[in-house]
Each structure stands twice: as structure tokens, then as C-alpha cells.
Design brief:
heterodimer, A: Rossmann fold, six-stranded mixed β-sheet, four-stranded antiparallel β-sheet, 37% helix, B: 299 residues, ATP hydrolysis activity (chain A), AAA+_ATPase (chain A), nucleotide-binding (chain A), ABC_Ni/Peptide_Import (chain A)
């Protein structure tokens, strides 16, 4: 067992075509400590979501991945798809922005949590899996879980559906949770609840977290190490406090200037290209 | 600049009438029942809403999804009709407007939407898009379409030579500027911005917020600014109205609502906003200052 849960080196993702390699992630390096929380921040087109898909081995067709991704000492890029499947969803779980599109509308949430669980745990009976599903739903504070387990996704609100997704990942007791904009589609009061829930789960289980988001305020509250990306490049990285108090790259400084503050003086928001429409 | 600084109070009574005054607005929708009988029910999206937008100010209408803020905006723009209540715009009862008067209202109130691409016709050139409100009004285009479009693009910070391009050739932030240029074409008195900066990246969002504020300073029109993002609202609003469950739960000057919120829902909403620690921001400003001094010393 090493102290580093996830070590990424030289990760490059491209969509090669006639015009060239078309790189969307360019030689990315970062480490996630066991039990740590790492934030990957960037604007649209920064390559942050492609990075998460590359780690999960879920890149779209036509994508080419090079570099090294070591999870708990195992080189994931060397694993055949079959072996990767036993990591994905089991030891490494992923939470997406839109829980509705990740849930099948035709099955109850209980069935889906149970199926996910049984696909990774051999010899588990339906009764046992159901108990696991109800327990996981209780852990994410879905009230009346024993009844709600038989409800369909449309019977849950957006925030509750995201809780269901988190319950599904929790049932597997993953060591690493990759959350890609998990609260972007949610109302701000619901977002606060889901972020609290993620923090609670990490405290309980010691799982590591990679949080991918465009929201600098969210990463500042949740993560202890931050990677800033732009146009596929790593702009800078470091401990959260250092990034927020002493950013080195002009791009990070610009981003931090551009974020509207809720409790700061009102002034012209500083931007890099104030009058040039970018 | 603080709230109201740019609008000097008229000396003595009477107070100038607000540009827009909505009173006791109600909007109900018919919904099919969820039960076996599929019985139709009434859903009250907007429930007894009263608000004012004064000349030259920005009233922000904030709330979470389903709060009724967008429906309220659509009622005020007369895109849909209210179940009951009155809307008075510039001294006229909006519901009673017909013919020429309604036509005039449609140019005095313009909307800017969240998704710039879906609100711009992809098959029309920018020139045609930004002059469309004038064409709709059957008004002559001052100086001709080409010069008029070029001048509008320049005002919103776009390259005036790009008037012959199509919406797909622009980035999201640029496309939103085209939507703003279109709203400006007919010199509106009120611009209703419905989540107009919500879909933009933070660096682009800051530019568009600055642009919206500058245009208001230049032109003196009013905004009804519909938004869910309280930090954005704080940057642009003169006054704030907070909606929840179809009702306005609190209204007041921006600094009052943000500084000492009275309603429990407003407090809950403000408390939920993620924040960069103020002490981190303070340290960053100190470091930034030190960096600048170092750089100057090196020169």
C-alpha cells in the first residue's frame, strides 16, 4: 500500500484525424493522496471532463490515450477492458452531472443499485443486495428508504436523484470517487446538501475524491489540492490555500479576479479581455 | 458605486412613477393529474406577485428552479397572459394594449435569454438578426442595415466587420453579445435578462456583466434581471426581489437584502452559496500588491 492513491503522469488524450493529433488533454501530471480531495478546475474546453473519462477508461470512440495512470500501484492503462471493468464502479466510482441520464427510467432505483452491486459481488442474493441498497439510501439520508427503494427515478427530485447516484457508488465502498460537476445542475441549497454529504462520506469511509468543476468557490470549500486546466494544458497546481492566496499563472489570477464574490466590494470585474469579445 | 447613486432623487413630491409596476400578478397553469383518473388540476406558478422597476435601475428577481421567476418575466414581457393582476408600463396598462400601442410596447421591452444560440436564428447573418426588431417594427434602419449593424456590434464589443457571419461562427460569449445588440437595436426602456449570463464561462461571464452595466450607464434603460446566482446578482442589481414557491418573500435594496436578510428563505439561500474564504482573498490581494511592487522595482 502506497500513500498515493492515484498517480497520473504525462496523461495525453487526443482525437487524431487528418489534420493532426487534435490533443484535448496535454501531458497532465498529478497525484491524489490516499483519503485526499483533489479539484480539477477549468472552463469549457479545458479538458477536465476528458481527464476523468480517461482515468475511468470511458473515453469516446476515436480517442487516443497515452501516459500513465496508476491506481493504488496498478497501471490502469495496461489493463484489458475486462479487468478494468472490475475496478470501475467497484473500487473507482463515478458521479456525473446529470443523474437523470445516468439512471434508467424503466427500473426502480432499488433494482439499479442492486444490479450494480451484484454485478461486482458474486454470490450475493437478491435479498442481500436489497438490504445493501436500502442501507446505502439511508446513508445518503433518503428518508423512508425501505419504501423509496421501489420508486422510479422520475419520482425523485434532482437533488434526491443525485443522492441515489451517490448511494449506488457508496454501496460498492469505493476507494476513489470521481465526481464530474456533481452539483452543477442543482439548486444552490441542494448543492450545499450534496457537498456536505460528500464530505460526510469521505470522513466515514476514507475514500479519495477527484472533483471536476468549473466552480472555483466549490473547489475552495471541498478540496485540498487543486489542478487548474486550460485548453487541455495544466496551467498550475498546488495546495488549495496556495492556489487561492498566491496564484502564479496569469490565467489563474484572471479566473480568480473574474469570479463574482457574494461578500466582496462591488467593482468592475477584472478580466483579461474586457472589451474584446472572447 | 452604491445602489441608487446614479439616479438622483427628484426634488420634492410627487415621486416619479416607476417604469414598470406589476400588482397582484397570478398565473395558473392547468396540469394533468398524476392519478389514474388523470384529473386536471391547477398549478399556481406565480402567486400574488407585486413589484416595481424604476427608471435606470436593475431589479434582480432571484430564486431557485420552480420559484416562478421566469414565468413572472414572461408575464411582464406579455409573452403569456396573467390569470389575474395588473401590469403598468410607462403609464399604460399592458394587458389592454392592442395594435400600434402593443407594437410599441414590444420594442420598448426587449428580452435577452440564457442560451444565445437557441435564441438566434442559425440561418440568418448577424446583420439580419440585429436589425430584425426594426424590420418587425417596419421602421427604417437609420443609415442603412450595414452601417447600423456595424455600429451595434461595436457597442457590444464585437468586431463590426463580422456582421456577415452566422451565429455558429461565434463563441458563446460573443453570441450572447449578439443577443444584447439585437435588444439594443430598438432603444428599449426595459431589458428583461432571463439567466442571460448563467451559461457562460466565468471569465466570459465577467465581461458580459461589465458590458451590461456599461450599456445601462450609457443608455439609462432599466433591467429586470432574472437569475439564480446570488453572487452575480450582487454585482449588477440595484434592488433585489427574492422568489420562492411563486411568491416574493423579500424585496429591498441590494445591500439591505444581502447585508441583513429578513426572510428565513433568503437567509437559507445566502448561507448556501459556496464562498472563497475572504481571508484567502485578502491574502491574495496582498500578494498581488507585493508582486506588482517587485515587478516595478525590477524595471
Amino acid at each position: 500500500m502506497t500513500d498515493t492513491l492515484l498517480q497520473v503522469r504525462g496523461l495525453t488524450v487526443g482525437f487524431p484525424n487528418a489534420n493532426g493529433p487534435n490533443t484535448v488533454v496535454n501531458s497532465l501530471d498529478f497525484d491524489l493522496a490516499r483519503g485526499g480531495a483533489l479539484g480539477i478546475v477549468g472552463e469549457s474546453g479545458s479538458g477536465k471532463s476528458m481527464t476523468s473519462l480517461a482515468i475511468m477508461g470511458l473515453l469516446p470512440k476515436g480517442a487516443e490515450r497515452t501516459g500513465s495512470i496508476a491506481f493504488d500501484g496498478t497501471e490502469l492503462t495496461a489493463l484489458p477492458e475486462r479487468a478494468m471493468r472490475s475496478y470501475r464502479g467497484d473500487r473507482i466510482a463515478m458521479i456525473f452531472q446529470d443523474p437523470l441520464s445516468s439512471l434508467n427510467p424503466y427500473y426502480t432505483v432499488g433494482t439499479q443499485i442492486m444490479e450494480a452491486y451484484r454485478s461486482h459481488r458474486t454470490g450475493v442474493t437478491r435479498r442481500q443486495a436489497r438490504a445493501v441498497a436500502i442501507e446505502a439510501m439511508e446513508r445518503v439520508h433518503i428518508g423512508d428508504a425501505a419504501r423509496r427503494v421501489d420508486h422510479y427515478p422520475h419520482q425523485f427530485s434532482g437533488g434526491m436523484r443525485q443522492r441515489v447516484m451517490i448511494a449506488m457508488t457508496l454501496s460498492m465502498e469505493p476507494e476513489l470517487i470521481i465526481a464530474d460537476e456533481p452539483t452543477t445542475a442543482l439548486d444552490v441549497t441542494v448543492q450545499a446538501q450534496i457537498l456536505d454529504l460528500l464530505a460526510e462520506i469521505r470522513a466515514d469511509t476514507g475514500a479519495g475524491l477527484v472533483l471536476i468543476t468549473h466552480d472555483l468557490a466549490v473547489v475552495s470549500e471541498v478540496t485540498d489540492h487543486i489542478v487548474v486546466m486550460r485548453d487541455g494544458d495544466l496551467v498550475e497546481q498546488g495546495p488549495a490555500e496556495r492556489i487561492f492566496t498566491d496564484p502564479q499563472a496569469p490565467y489563474t489570477r484572471m479566473l480568480l479576479d473574474a469570479v463574482p464574490r457574494i461578500d466582496d466590494e462591488i467593482g468592475l470585474l477584472r478580466t483579461m479581455h474586457t472589451e474584446e469579445g472572447r | 458605486m452604491t445602489a441608487g447613486d446614479s439616479i438622483p432623487r427628484q426634488p420634492g413630491p410627487p415621486e416619479p412613477a416607476p417604469l414598470l409596476r406589476a400588482e397582484n400578478l397570478v398565473k395558473e397553469f392547468t396540469v394533468s393529474g398524476g392519478g389514474l383518473l388523470g384529473r386536471a388540476g391547477r398549478f399556481r406558478a406565480v402567486d400574488d406577485v407585486s413589484l416595481e422597476v424604476r427608471k435606470g435601475e436593475t431589479l434582480a428577481l432571484v430564486g431557485e428552479s420552480g420559484s416562478g421567476k421566469s414565468t413572472t418575466a414572461r408575464l411582464i414581457a406579455r409573452l403569456i397572459d396573467a390569470t389575474s393582476g395588473t401590469i403598468e408600463f410607462d403609464g399604460r396598462e399592458v394587458h389592454a394594449l392592442t395594435g400600434k400601442a402593443l407594437h410599441a410596447f414590444r420594442s420598448e421591452v426587449q428580452m435577452v435569454f440564457q442560451d444565445p444560440y437557441s435564441s438566434l436564428n442559425p440561418k440568418h447573418t448577424v446583420e439580419r438578426i440585429v436589425t430584425a426588431p426594426l424590420a418587425y417594427q417596419r421602421r427604417p434602419i437609420p443609415g442603412g442595415a450595414r452601417a447600423f449593424a456595424a455600429a451595434l456590434l461595436e457597442r457590444v464589443g464585437l468586431n463590426p466587420d463580422h456582421a456577415a457571419r452566422y451565429p455558429a461562427q461565434f463563441s458563446g460569449g460573443q453570441a450572447q453579445r449578439i443577443g444584447i445588440a439585437r435588444a439594443l437595436a430598438v432603444s428599449p426602456k426595459l431589458i428583461i435578462a432571463d439567466e442571460a449570463v448563467s451559461a457562460l464561462d466565468v471569465s466570459v461571464q465577467a465581461q458580459v456583466i461589465n458590458l451590461l452595466r456599461r450599456l445601462q450607464d450609457e443608455e439609462g434603460f432599466s433591467y429586470l434581471f432574472i437569475a439564480h446566482d446570488l453572487a452575480v446578482v450582487r454585482q449588477i442589481a440595484t434592488r433585489v426581489a427574492v422568489m420562492n414557491g411563486g411568491r416574493i418573500v423579500e424585496t429591498g435594496d441590494r445591500d439591505t437584502v444581502f447585508g441583513s436578510p429578513q426572510d428565513p428563505y433568503t437567509r437559507k439561500l445566502l448561507a448556501a452559496v459556496p464562498r472563497i474564504r475572504p481571508e484567502w482573498d485578502a491574502a491574495r490581494r496582498r500578494n498581488e500588491q507585493a508582486r506588482r511592487e517587485r515587478e516595478e522595482a525590477e524595471l
